[in-house]
Specification:
This protein is mostly helical. The chain has helices at about 5-25, 25-55, 65-85, 90-95, 100-110, 145; strands at about 130-135, 140. It has one domain. Strand 1 and strand 2 form a beta hairpin.
Length: about 150
């Protein structure tokens, strides 16, 4: 089984959290944290797989993707409910589920594209800066009164 770099980071963060909670808290807390991390990892893997299939064209239209998305959340909610019913620590469970967030942010930062030092750039005082909308990443459409 091949792991995505973000999945490997998530595994490392979750393992560190479980190890620290074994030392600083109880084994029950650590096992709830590990269970939450496992739920989060499975959820991320399913989301990534479905997204790959959607963007590659294997899923025709958004209907099947939305159905898989909904089914994934129903299954996750059922698993969380069952874990809480059998006595999992809710704080540890949510902490384990949330381990994917720093892994995704750190992974995106580590895998960012390299900065091209030879890329074209405008001078700081160039008037063309006023024609660019940074929020929409495109040129501003000029109105008739601006063109005159």
């Amino acid at each position: 089984m091949k792991f995505d770099p973000i999945e490997r980071l998530n595994l490392a963060i979750a393992a560190g959290g479980v190890s620290a909670s074994l030392v600083l808290a109880s084994p029950a807390f650590a096992s709830s944290l590990a269970l939450g991390a496992a739920f989060g990892a499975l959820n991320f893997r399913a989301l990534r797989s479905a997204s790959d299939k959607l963007f590659s064209g294997e899923l025709a239209g958004s209907g099947p993707w939305v159905a898989l998305f909904s089914l994934r959340f129903v299954m996750l909610a059922g698993a969380i409910g069952f874990a809480l019913h059998v006595g999992a620590n809710p704080v540890a469970l949510v902490t384990g589920l949330s381990a994917i967030v720093p892994a995704a942010v750190l992974g995106a930062w580590l895998m960012r594209p390299a900065v091209d030092p030879n890329a074209p750039v405008l001078d700081a005082d160039d008037p063309d800066w006023e024609r660019w909308n940074a929020w929409l990443a495109r040129e501003v459409e000029l109105r008739e009164e601006d063109e005159a």
